[in-house]
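Troubleshooting log. The previous structure file for this entry was overwritten by mistake, so regenerating from the original sequence record. Sequence copied from the archived sheet and checked twice against the printout by T.R.
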Amino acid sequence: MAPRGPLPFTPLHQKDETLYSHLGRVNAHNCCAGSSRRFLHEVFGDMKAVSSADLPSRLDSMLDRWPEVSPYPTVDEVIEKTTQYPYHRSFMPAERWKELVRRASCGPGSSLKTWLGLVAHRFSASAMFRSCIECDRLSWDINGVLYWHRSHMLPGVVVCPIHRMPLIEHFMQSKDSERSALRLPPLAGTLAIVTRSSLSSLTRFSVTSGDALWSEDRSLTGDLCVATYRARLRELGLCSTSGRVRWAELSSLILESNDGFRGWSVGERISQRTGSVLGWLYGLLRDRERLCHPLTHIVLINLLFDSFAAYAAAAKEAQGPDLSNISPRTEEILDPVPPVDVANCDVSCRVAAIELGISVTTVVKRRRALGLPISERRKTLTPDRLAIVRKRLATGVPPAQVAQEAHVSLSSVYRIRSETAGLASHPMKVSDEEVVAYRKRWVSTGLRASSFRQRRVLDGAAYAWLYRHDRDWLTANRGRAALPVGRKLRQARIDWDKRDENYARRIAALSDDQRGRSPRKRVSASALLRGTGAQTSIRAHLYRLPKTREALRTCSESVGSFQKQRYAQAAASLVGSDGFFAQWKALKLAGLRQAPADGEVERERKG
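Regenerated output below.
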């Protein structure tokens, strides 16, 4: 077990070293007894904790329990110098970055990558452990240690951003049989395959990825990405002044500058197109709130700006003076202001709704469910007006018509309807004109589609309205339309009874043919189906073919029955050859280990 109290020795954190590597060296230098999982439990306070190589969590708990593990006094410095969180900051909105820091500090990391969208993007959410020969040599010569570098584990990076040489790949953490083990860099591995044509684009990508990771500009967030990209696209003539992007030309330029992403570890995913456009471009340049993988941002930055420094300068120009310090330090956001409590009657329903980001109706419903008093708006909803609304609703008048007649909002009508006993389940009255109109709409779909499902696709609103207000008519005849003159009703083109008889006869004939061969194989149900030439169709529609099912049951033979038949044939061949029968010879000829009962063999021989 890891020793309690101050550690005897805490090695210094090396430049660009991951927290995973630092904890591994702490464990190794102190010779902590027990497994790595026990050590991680002592560090993070959770027996199920796995020290993630790229995005670790429970950092606040780690510093509280083991202040000697890291030489940095705050969670902010741990995030900045030992994790890959800064790699995501430049491409993430400020509010999302606050939530990400909170989850890294306090929350469990089980769903962190799913929340970030790394799993949905399918660019491999797990970290690949890589190392550089030159970096390891310098580290060993200067510091006498080997450690894992953050920049070598960035997504899609297979070239060292410092020495511009291919990295050595070791293992992926999610596929490691001992994920809780704190592995240190080995002396050997598999060199990443980098073709000569893709070396230049991969090197530029690795350098830009490293610059994004090492960037210390906290004001550079994802709130500026779309505006900066579009401004640069307008300068290059790839976007009009009205904001229309030339998607196909932009996609071609990206593929051309990166050699079609050949040789990239994520090349197959990132080169997927929707028509003639790269699929990830739409989400990157259209939706400001959507989280896109940093990898896609870096590919676009290399095309538009050539470097991360040029992109940062352009983003600052588009930032404006009132957007400075948009990303606060970690200490400022670890203790957020608690949200407004719904049950606090000192706060009005409208103010509580604004603070919580929900509707006023939702706040009112929750307070009524808790039995709290709600101040009525007597200037608008007077007792006489409430009585009129309830009376009209009780007669089945639609809420929209009641709201128009009573001069109140539609949400107020629905709230009164849900709060008044008996009105919520009371059927609403509909006019004959509405019924006729929706019936005509539904009947007209029968002239354009043959199946019921296709008709629902054509006019789902009409179906939903009739299902709610005129269900008896809808379910009685499905609203079938009269066929035009000259059009025949579509009939089923398959006679399943006749097909069932044909399949049954074919299976019986195949069984007789296979049983008459010498030597023969076992007549199994699969062999009979293969012989018919319609195996897939029969298996898919076997519920419609009762005679075929019976033929398969009677004509096929089990493994035990076939073994008895083989033994009987072997015994008959021995007796017919020289008149001398030896059981071991019969077993050897039949390929069996144990002889069946005599009565069973006799029945098989006669059969």
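Strands lie at 128-131, 168-172, 190-191, 273-274, 277-278. Archived copy saved in two places this time.
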